[in-house]
Amino acid sequence: MKVEFINNAAEDIMQLFITESEFRKAGNDEGYNDFAFSTHCFFRFFGLDRIIYKNEHQAILKELEKNGAVIIEASGNFNGLYELAVYVSNNNKRKRVNIDF
Questions:
Q1: 39 is in which domain, residue-wise?
Q2: Model's pTM, two decimal places?
Q3: How many Å apart are CA 72 and CA 82, to the nearest integer?
Q4: What are 24-58's pLDDT values in tens digits?
Q5: How far apart are the C-alpha atoms of 3 and 74, rounded to whole Å?
Q6: Furthest C-alpha separation in the chain
Q7: Residue 80: CA atoms inside 13 Å, Cβ hemisphere, count?
Q8: Number of domain units in the chain
Q9: CB 3 within 8 Å of CB 15
Q10: SS3 assignment, position 101
Q11: 3-state secondary structure of 78
């Protein structure tokens, strides 16, 4: 699975960007293991022991359209505290997916 780590230091935002075609690969066990490893590494950067679980992957997948993208985002750095969010981008329109962190 190919993911892209984006660091926007000017706005103190870090993102894990995954295209729709790559995100769909996580539908099988091997693909999901790669996806889980990627999300675990991303969250560990912020001191969290977390992954995106299979049921959360399915919730994101329901919102994702063909040629869209998934954006997992950490924003703000207030004494080491970050706001975490998951978005889908369909036709260049971002929509937040309800995932509890």
A1: 4-97
A2: 0.90
A3: 12
A4: 999 898 899 999 999 999 999 888 889 999 999 99
A5: 16
A6: 38
A7: 5
A8: 1
A9: no
A10: coil
A11: strand
